[in-house]
Amino acid sequence: MVQFTPDIYATPQIGKLLADETRVLTPLLARCTGDHGLHLTAAAQGEPPAIPLLGHWATLRVAGAVLGGDIRASGLEALPFSDESFGVVLLRHALETTARQDNLLDEAIRVLAPGGMLAITGIHPVGLWSPWVARQSRGIRPRLTWPWWWSQRLVRDEFELSMPRRVGSAWPRAGGAAVGESLVGGGYLLVARKKRPAAVPLRPRAVAVPTPIPGTLASGARRNARESIT
């Protein structure tokens, strides 16, 4: 008999996949700096990777039209943060559980500072994990999306994008040795950097500087001097 799970992101299998993602993500994000990072996650107990140069993480759990965690808010509205306020934004399976995928990605881009890193993880729709998700889920199923789709979105928004990577085991497992990158991994991740605005050089413009006129000249000579300088 199939055992349905109210929240597959609380299962040991997803916990193992999250650990495998962290194994690959940590060195990729190790050089990220800034006062704050934003962690948008589908897992209630998921922890962001430890980044030595980053000051603090704000964590929001994404569940349909609701955002919980450090701040409770509506998932149908803009994120309650100012523009370009985070050095890192990590969407950890959040695009699978949000009510509006494109809107959440747009908001993640908005709050990311220029030069900051954006990381997206998810369950790959091709492989043995996809049927497992379909069997285990009760009610609304996670929306599994090709990483290629998110890559195209980020390229369009002028991000510097690395190649998507597949991570984790080929089939859902609750334990075993840690797995990093794998050609047939059940999860994927991609990392991109938000480009800084290009500096536009300004052409110097000549400015006329008035030349002081000696006060000993006659009025007529002074007038002629000004005209010649002009």
Automatic annotation (TrEMBL):
Domain Methyltransferase type: 70-120
Pfam (any one): Methyltransf_11
Keyword Methyltransferase: yes
GO molecular function: S-adenosylmethionine-dependent methyltransferase activity
Gene3D superfamilies linked to this entry: Vaccinia Virus protein VP39 (3.40.50.150)
Domain of life: Bacteria
Keywords per UniProt: Methyltransferase, Transferase
GO BP, sorted A to Z: methylation
Protein known as: Class I SAM-dependent methyltransferase
The species this protein was found in: Luteibacter yeojuensis
